[in-house]
Amino acid sequence: MLRSAEERCVPWSGGEPRVAELHTVVARLRRELAALPAELPDRAIAEDELAGLAAMLLGGFPEVPRLRRSLLLIAGAIGSVSALAPAVGRVRAAVDRFDDDNRRYDGPPGDGRVPRDPRDGSSDGPPTLPDLP
Q1: With contact defined as beta carbons under 8 Å apart, do 122 and 63 qualify?
Q2: pLDDT tens digits along 18-63
Q3: What's the predicted TM-score (pTM) here?
Q4: Which Pfam families match (predicted)?
Q5: What secondary structure does DSSP assign to 11-54, as a single string?
Q6: Which domains are assigned to the chain?
């Protein structure tokens, strides 16, 4: 459930920048969803998932599969609402920064580039097959 305007929010202070960023964008999406007057059939699902994400982030470093599952549920519940699209995009970008330790993205999420694998020194772009003789 969202806090009322009278309740004071305790500032969140975490050491991991990705957690802090995700916490910020989740809070913003929660506020934007609460302010949206439109009737949404799956609003409760989105609100519950956003509340769960916020609680998980306060508990420390989140589980990446849980982040992705929550993002999928949130996008499915409110993804067609154009007024919320930028906020959902920011949540997605913040979740994408939690990719596993073996893969790294050099550009912003959704820029169309293929992730670079730092273990093998490959560059951006699709994998190529060796030339045949």
Answers
A1: no
A2: 999 999 999 999 999 999 998 899 999 999 999 999 999 988 888 8
A3: 0.65
A4: DUF5955 (PF19380)
A5: PP--S-HHHHHHHHHHHHHHHHHHH--S--TTHHHHHHHHHHHH
A6: 17-96 (1.20.1440)
